[in-house]
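Q: Structure tokens for this one, please.
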Amino acid sequence: MSIPTQMSLVGFVASAPELHFTKDGDEYCRLRVGVEQWRKEADGEFTKLAPTFHDMVAYKSTARETYARFRKGDSFVASGYVHAHEVERPGEPSVIREEFVARKIGHNANKTAYEVQRRSPAPAPGPPAQSPPSSAIGL
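A: Here is the predicted structure, written as tokens:
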């Protein structure tokens, strides 16, 4: 069986996340994100280039968590997919815009100092109950 994979995006939060609601009352969160760009030189060194900026959106529980936990400047790793949609403006030709739809998102452990607060594990099951020894003697 092959390993299931998804597209990922590594970047930084470029604008404060904004929480909105659909007509059905579901949450969605919109934000601009930046992606650092690097160029490898002939001598093997890397030159940092200007970042690129993109739209990102998350829905439902991912939207709530993104809005609650992320601030401008935070580094993140997100998995999801790219959604292309047509934007029409009166008197202008329509354009195709892309946004990254984050299904899961977390802080980038390579760039973020944090403490992990794990949930308490469920108590381990004890040994199976043994019946008390019988005093009866069988014939």
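A few notes: The chain is about 5% helix and 45% strand. The chain has a mean pLDDT of 90.
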